[in-house]
Every structure is written in structure tokens, then in C-alpha cells.
Design a protein that fits this description.
The protein has 14 helices and 13 strands.
């Protein structure tokens, strides 16, 4: 069976992690796997891929200025995606991400293949613009399946998606615990990780950290990631008097190592899908604090058992949770020990068995 993934990029992020894991899994089970990406030839995949997994970079990420140019650019994208798929002749195409899904569905009209689309963030909470939202409403009716990551996402999705939607969480690979990153251990460290964007709520985290920092001056906060809010977050850090206790070192390709070097993980998001960073932190044995945002964390963290859940966009609740765990090493140890079970609950074999259940339908359609 020939399977083709369609993604924006493999250079980082949750989609790259999941697609790389899925591609390797199916390659090892004698499926022919190809990945079409929108990025250019100079971009290398962040996560390792098996030798037999083919990657074709379509170089479709150039910016468009003006509505007419954007329309023309997207027509060109659709044509190039279609030509690449005609050359690949896959039995099934699996697209990841809202706008990529729309382009993939348009590009495959009339081709002899099944098309699965996968939403990666809560579709109600994530703003994708009026045009893309309308296009999604039009094109998703053509999808063979719509994969959503949580039951909460499925419940909140448009009624028209329900008949063909399925819920499949992200796989959490079992990784060998790495040696902690080399650094002085003079200060306990709380880590956050993600794109520096409004969605991730790092502005809320800074306000919460500022409230309890006078009681816990030995703790430091490290926020890994890049994004459009960097300048605003750095200015907020300075304004709150936290410059000596907070840093933004940028993106890292050593996420698991940096997590292993921390004492606590926090995810203050306003909305999510099925956050990989949270799962990776738990698999590293970290106690975690997460907001009960739409959607994902409540289906990963068992409150009081392997982490703490707090109300979304509630700075007081974030501060109280931080204060509790900063002050109680025993609680951190207990929650972190239980958190490792995330690897079994969302193991690659368990999650991929759910994807495997869709393949006979693809084979039937392709035949």
C-alpha cells in the first residue's frame, strides 16, 4: 500500500514529530511511504526518518502580498501538489493542519485515492481567517475521514464533520532518559516549551511567576521556543523585574534533554490540540502543571495523580499551582513518578493500531 503524507514542514513542531513517527512505523511494516512538504530544499527534517521514507520538498512557502496574489499563489500550490501526487500515485493521502488539509482536498479532486485530513488544534478556538474557514467548510465534506485528537475537539467540531470524524491521540514514543543538559544545578528550574504566540499563554505565565517569585527567589523559569511574541514577552519580563530569573533561549532540537534537566514543567495555553511538549515532559518524569484549556490537557493529565490542571487564563490559579509545587518536593516526586505512565497510555503501538484500523477502508476505496 502506498501512503503519502502532506505537511507544511518537517523542520519542527508537533506535526513533524507525529508524521515522522507514523512514517517510520509504517515503513517498518512494508508500506511505501512518501512525504510531501511545502518547505524548500535547504530545510532538513528535525526528527529522524528511515532511509526508505521518501521526502519531496515542493517549495510552496513564499509569502503573498495582497488578496489577488494570495489567490494566484494558492492556485499554483494546488497545481504543484496535484502534479506531485499524480507522480506518487498513492492509495491514500494524509494531510495535517487546517490550511494544508484544504489545499490537499482541492488538489486531489478526481484522483483515485482516499484523503484523510487531520486537525491539530482545537478547530473552534484556532483562528484561521474567514477565507480558510469557509474553504474548510466546503472541502471537508470530500474527506474520507477527519481525524481529531481528543474527544473534546470532536464534541466541539461542526456538526457536518461528525459522520466521518474519528478521535486518535498523538503517539508518545518511549525514549531512553537522556543525561541532563550540562548546566549548573544551583537553581531549581521550571520549564515551558512552545511557539511564542498568543495561543500558548506565556504572558499569563509571566504574570503568575511574578506573583510568587518573591517567596521562591531561587527558582528560574526557562521558556523554550520562537515566535511572534518574543519581543512583547521579553519586554513584559523586564517590566515585571524578572530579567534575572526568566530567559527565552529560543528553539531547541534537544527538547527531551532540556526537559530532563528541569524540575517542573508548565503549560499555560489558552487552547491546544494534543500537546506533544506536555506528553514529552511527562514521559521524562516531570511533574506538570497545565491549563484545562480546549482541548487536550484534560485527556492527558489526571489532576492530582500525575499533574495539576488549573482553569485556563486564570493567573491566580497558575500562581497557586506553582507555589504549591515549588514548596513541596515530595509532591513533585510523586506526580513526576506517576507521569511516566503517559508512555503506556499513548504508546506508539496503541495509537498506531487506531490508524491501522482506517487502512482497510483506504484499500477498499483505492481498489
Amino acid at each position: 500500500m502506498r501512503l503519502c503524507f502532506l505537511v507544511g514542514s518537517l523542520d519542527g513542531g508537533g506535526i513533524a514529530r507525529v508524521v515522522s513517527t507514523m512514517a517510520n512505523y509504517w515503513d517498518e511494516r512494508d508500506r511505501e511511504i512518501s512525504i510531501l512538504t511545502f518547505d524548500g530544499r535547504g530545510v532538513r527534517p528535525l526528527y529522524p526518518l528511515n532511509h526508505d521514507v521518501r521526502v519531496e520538498r515542493l517549495d510552496l512557502l513564499s509569502d503573498s502580498t495582497g488578496k489577488l496574489r494570495a489567490v494566484v499563489s494558492n492556485v499554483v500550490r494546488i497545481q504543484r501538489i496535484r502534479a506531485a501526487l499524480q507522480a506518487e500515485k498513492p492509495d491514500a493521502v494524509m494531510a495535517f493542519g487546517a490550511t494544508t488539509n484544504v489545499l490537499g482536498l482541492l488538489a486531489t479532486r478526481g484522483l483515485n485515492c482516499s484523503v484523510l485530513v487531520s486537525e491539530r488544534v482545537d478547530p473552534v478556538a484556532e483562528p484561521i481567517g474567514r477565507f480558510w474557514n469557509a474553504a474548510r467548510g466546503l472541502t471537508y465534506r470530500w474527506a474520507t475521514h477527519i481525524v481529531l485528537q481528543t474527544e473534546a475537539m470532536r464534541a466541539r467540531s461542526p456538526a457536518g464533520w461528525q459522520a466521518r470524524s474519528v478521535t486518535i491521540p498523538n503517539p508518545v514514543p518511549a525514549l531512553d532518559a537522556p543525561a541532563p543538559a550540562a548546566r549548573p544545578r544551583a537553581r531549581p528550574r521550571v520549564v515551558a516549551m512552545g511557539r511564542l504566540a498568543y495561543q500558548k499563554g506565556f504572558d499569563l505565565l509571566l504574570d503568575a511567576f511574578a506573583r510568587i517569585h518573591p517567596q521562591h527567589p531561587d527558582w528560574e523559569l526557562v521558556v523554550w521556543g520562537e515566535g511572534p511574541e518574543r519581543t512583547a514577552l521579553e519586554a513584559q519580563t523586564t517590566r515585571l523585574g524578572l530579567a534575572a530569573a526568566v530567559c527565552f533561549p529560543g528553539a531547541t532540537d534537544r527538547a527531551f534533554e532540556e526537559l530532563a534537566a528541569a524540575d517542573l514543567f508548565i503549560m499555560p495555553s489558552r487552547y491546544e490540540g494534543f500537546p506533544n511538549a506536555l506528553c514529552e515532559a511527562m514521559s521524562a518524569g516531570l511533574p506538570v502543571i497545565a491549563t484545562d484549556c480546549p482541548s487536550g490537557p484534560a485527556e492527558i493529565v489526571r489532576d492530582g495523580i500525575d499533574g495539576l490542571l488549573v482553569e485556563s487564563e486564570d493567573v491566580d490559579a497558575l500562581a497557586d499551582a506553582l507555589d504549591s509545587l515549588f514548596a513541596d518536593a515530595g509532591m513533585r516526586t510523586r506526580l513526576g513518578g506517576a507521569a511516566r505512565s503517559v508512555v503506556e497510555r499513548f504508546s506508539v503501538s496503541e495509537v498506531m493500531s487506531q490508524w491501522e484500523a482506517l487502512l482497510p477502508y483506504f484499500e477498499h476505496r483505492a481498489g
